[in-house]
Design goal:
Elements: H1 2-16, E1 25-28, H2 41-48, E2 54-60, E3 66-71, E4 77-82, E5 87-89
Antiparallel strand pairs: 1-2, 1-5, 2-3, 3-4
């Protein structure tokens, strides 16, 4: 069920085809398979907790990935890089 909902959200995001500007808030709608697997548990929890929540888009990498930034509940700043299909516009 969760995977079906995620796929629908990704498809909806692609259909809208809106490219958010750096500095805007976007929704992290999922993560690539295995994205957090080799990270410390605190980082895994912080990153996965952001799924479905607004997150700041810092910019676009040359390879097309988006740079996202957030501060977790402990005050730690995280930057993650994902394919744009894993974000949605607000």
């Amino acid at each position: 069920m969760h995977n079906e909902m995620l796929e629908t959200m990704i498809e909806d995001s692609e259909i809208r085809n809106q490219k958010p500007e750096p500095g805007q808030k976007v929704i992290l709608i999922g993560l690539p398979e295995g994205f957090v697997g080799d990270l410390p548990e605190d980082d895994q929890r912080a990153i996965t907790a952001m799924i479905g929540r607004p997150i700041t888009l810092n910019g676009y990498e040359e390879d097309g990935r988006v740079e996202l930034e957030f501060t977790d509940d402990q005050g730690v700043i995280h930057m993650i890089f994902v394919d744009p299909r894993f974000i949605g516009s607000l």
